[in-house]
Each structure stands twice: as C-alpha cells, then as structure tokens.
Design brief:
The protein has helices at 27-53, 55-62, 68-99, 102-120, 126-129, 132-148, 151-162, 168-196, 199-206, 208-212, 214-226, 232-253, 271-275, 279-310, 315-343, 345-368, 372-390, 393-396, 406-422, 425-436, 441-459; strands at 4-5, 23-24, 474-475. The chain has 478 residues and is mainly α.
Length: 478
C-alpha cells in the first residue's frame, strides 16, 4: 500500500491533530504525484506560450485576409474562445473528480489537452480546405479550454491531498514551477524556430512542430498519471461513503450487503452543495484567484505586447526579457513555497498584495524608461512579487474547501475568476489605455487587483501546517 492509514469513523469529519487518525505519506508516491500534476500544468502553458508567440503565423495560415490586424484578431479570438468554455469544463470535471476520483479525471484531462493541442498541428491550412480550417482550429481550442477547466483545480487538489501537512507549500509550489517551465519551453521553441527557419518554411510546415510535440508529452503525462493511486483523502472519503451504504443495507435487509458503489467512488454531490454550501469559501477563492491571475497574465502575457506596441521596444528583446524573468521566478519558486510552510500562506500572499499595491507604479515607471537595465529591474521586481502568489496558491486554494467538495468547488471558483478577470486582463488594459491615453493603466489595474486580493487574504484562515478540512492529519514518515 502507498500509505498507512487508520480510517476515521464515519461520523467524524475532521480529526484533530492529536488523534490517532493519521495518514503517513509515502515519499516516492508523493514525488510521483507532484511530477504527474506539474507536467499537466506545463503542457497547458506550453500550448499557451506557443499559441501566443506564433499568433501572427497562425493568422496567415487559418485566416487569410488583406489586413494583418484582422488576421491577428481572428487568431486571438479562437484563443479567447478557450476561456469561455473553461467554467463549463470546471462544472463537468470538478464534480466528477469528487465522485469518481482525482486520478481518473486528471488522466482524462491530460488525454483531452494533448489531443486538442496535437490536433492543431494536423489541421490543413485555409488554402487547402477553406473555411473548414478555422472551424477546426476553433473546435480544437474548445477541446483544450474544456479540459483545462478541470486541470488546475484537480492538479492542486491532487498534490495537496498527497502532501504532508508541514510540506504542502513546498510541494505545491512545483505545480507553478511546471507552469513557468511550460511557458518558457513553448515561447523559447517558437523563438528558436523563428531564428532558424525562413518565413516561408515557418508558414508552410514549421508552425506545426510545437503543436505536434504535445503528442509525446501527453503520452508521458498520461503514463505518469495512470501509475498513481488515488489520494489518501479521497480514498478515506470514499470508504466512509461505502461504509455508510453497507450499514444502511444491513439495516434494511438484516444482512451484510454492498452499497452498490466501488471503494473509490462516492455518491454524487449536488451542485447546490458545491456552490451555495460553500459560498464564503468560493468568494475568497474568486478574490485570491483574481489577484493571482490578473498579475500573472499582466506580466507574462500582456507586458511583451506593452513593450512593443506602447513603448516601441524591439519585439524579440521584449520576449527575451519576459523569459529571463520567468527563469528567475523558477529559481525562487521552491524556496518561496518552503517559506509558506514556515511563516504561513497568509503572510506571503499579503506581502504580494502589498507589493503590487505600492510598487506597481514605480516598477512600471522603471519599465517606461526604456533601457534594458531599467526594464529588467522593473519586470524582475514584478516577477518576484508574483512568486508570492505562484508559491502560495496551489496549497492555499485547496485548503479553502472540505474533501467532500474540494475538486468541484475549487474548479468552479477558479475557472469563473480566471475567465472573468485573468484571461480578460490584456483586452481590458488595452481598452483602458485606448480610452484614456494613460500608459500607467497596467499599474493601476494591478493595484486594484491587489486591494481585492488583500481583502480576501484578510478574511481567509491560515492553513499552513494544518490538516486539510475534512481530512485526517498527514505526516511524513520518520
């Protein structure tokens, strides 16, 4: 067995740390769980980096038009469509993850993500099949977005439920390490291809290579996820449901009977319980994800365009600056995750909110100076502040919800917030600059997000070093 565990009595929802109901984790299983979860996030953001930085080429392949602007808008329109179906994916995969298990759903989302990305690399061009090409591109993007709706909440839940209570922050931080690695891999590959291939080669066949790489990546990720056992927290919850069913059957028939459910499946949890029953935790989740994703998309997605379009900075150098910032974040990420285990999630998240509130304007003023040093310092400062969120959220968000509804409620709250606030950040900020002519709008937008995030962290409960709600204490073997 992967864990040694004494199952709590059915009537006890959250054993106290001093009780005998303790899960002793298996270090090898924990490492495999972290790798398998992080790879899915890496794959999602690999696609994000590829699609963002090859958008101009994709516009020419799928949306031939006399206007480059129309091509680009059409390409990003297909990109944005994935965000529209993310909440729908969360509504489907989240409740399923609470019913049939985290491992099964994470394997399914991995298959769908890999298939959607790989399919883009196989789609014929507009010149070959006409309007069918952009329609197929849109369909592939919808598959990607739908599967992504169940990915982050499931991956963070999976790691959180496997990790010992005192190391959950450190282990959870590797999820966002995967995010940064995937983005750097995708954007870096496009940059390398652009440098090595001619424009004609890139347009005719080169653009397919990054998407086709998703196939082998998906197979590796699926292999890792299929080798995992179900999390101890979910297995215990499913065991309680089965024991309850057995007791009910015994009472009705006078015999020992089965509940009709497997040992790793629970009765369906009503959607109302996931939303109305968790309304306070959901509001906190939306607020925390808002500040996390607004600052994330602002720095990693919007700033390269800001440097090019608003400050007339060289496009290649702007991308390289962002990639360097992400590399810096990757180095700091595990240490910041370990810090949250020592001082708590709330102080680290609060420090990030305070930093964005008071340093966004100075950092953007530095960036607007235009020199490579000034841009590097400004972007680096924002990147280090963002680490306060990337290192904390994978462990803080799952701790908002009890085991019974954790995957479903987190999927709903996370994806609603990402779709409404995170994914729209580049569009909203561009519109605000266009309406006001004020190039400081990115800083003001991050400051507003920091205020909302600060209120959420003020109202949340510290979770570092404590058992997840509804789960037994989890400790590392001695």
């Amino acid at each position: 067995m992967a864990t040694a565990e004494i199952t709590p009595a059915p009537v006890r929802e959250a054993p106290s740390p001093g009780s005998a109901d303790v899960t002793v984790t298996d270090p090898a299983l924990v490492r495999r769980a972290v790798k398998a979860a992080a790879l899915g996030n890496a794959m999602e953001w690999f696609d994000f980096g590829v699609y963002s930085y090859i958008a101009v080429t994709l516009g020419k392949v799928f949306f031939p038009s006399g206007s480059p602007t129309v091509q680009l808008l059409s390409t990003f329109g297909a990109f944005a469509a994935a965000f529209l179906v993310r909440p729908l994916g969360g509504l489907v995969f989240g409740p399923l993850g609470d019913r049939v298990g985290r491992q099964k759903i994470l394997a399914l989302t991995m298959i769908m993500m890999a298939a959607g990305t790989f399919a883009i690399g196989l789609i014929p061009s507009y010149g070959s099949i006409g309007v069918g090409a952009p329609l197929l591109l849109l369909a592939a993007r919808l598959v990607q977005g739908f599967s992504t709706g169940g990915e982050y909440a499931g991956a963070s839940t999976f790691i959180a439920e496997y990790a010992p209570d005192k190391r959950r922050g450190f282990l959870g931080s590797w999820l966002e390490f995967g995010t940064l690695a995937g983005y750097i891999g995708g954007a870096g590959l496009v940059t390398l291809m652009t440098a090595l291939l001619s424009s004609d080669d890139l347009l005719s066949w080169g653009w397919r290579i990054p998407f086709l790489i998703a196939g082998p990546m998906g197979i590796v990720g699926l292999y890792l996820r299929m080798r995992l056992e179900e999390t101890p927290a979910f297995a215990a919850e499913a065991g309680k449901a089965e024991n309850t069913g057995n007791t009910e059957n015994t009472g009705n028939t006078g015999k020992s009977g089965k509940s009709g459910k497997s040992g790793t499946e629970r009765p369906k949890v009503p959607l109302r319980e996931m939303v109305a029953g968790q309304w306070r935790a959901l509001l906190l989740c939306v607020g925390l994800v808002l500040v996390f994703n607004v600052t994330d998309y602002m720095l990693l997605s919007y700033m390269p365009s800001y440097l090019t379009s608003e400050l007339k900075y060289d496009e290649t150098h702007g991308l390289l600056v962002v990639l360097a910032v992400m590399a810096l974040m990757m180095v700091v990420q595990p240490f910041a995750g370990a810090l949250t285990d020592r001082v708590g999630r709330r102080p680290v998240i609060a420090a990030g909110c305070a930093g964005f509130l008071f340093l966004s304007v100075p950092a953007l003023l530095l960036i607007r100076q235009g020199s490579l040093l000034a841009i590097g310092l400004g972007m680096g400062a924002l990147g280090l502040l963002l680490v306060c969120f990337t290192a904390s959220m994978p462990s803080a968000l799952p701790a908002l919800f009890p085991t019974r509804v954790r995957y479903g409620s987190l999927s709903i709250g996370f994806n609603v917030s990402v779709s409404l606030f995170g994914g729209t950040t580049p569009l909203v900020v561009t519109a605000l600059i266009g309406a006001t002519g004020n190039l400081m709008m990115p800083a003001y937008y991050m400051m507003a997000a920091a205020v909302i995030g600060g209120f959420a962290v003020w109202r949340m409960t510290e979770s570092a070093g404590r058992p997840l709600p509804g789960s037994a204490p989890s400790v590392a073997p001695r």
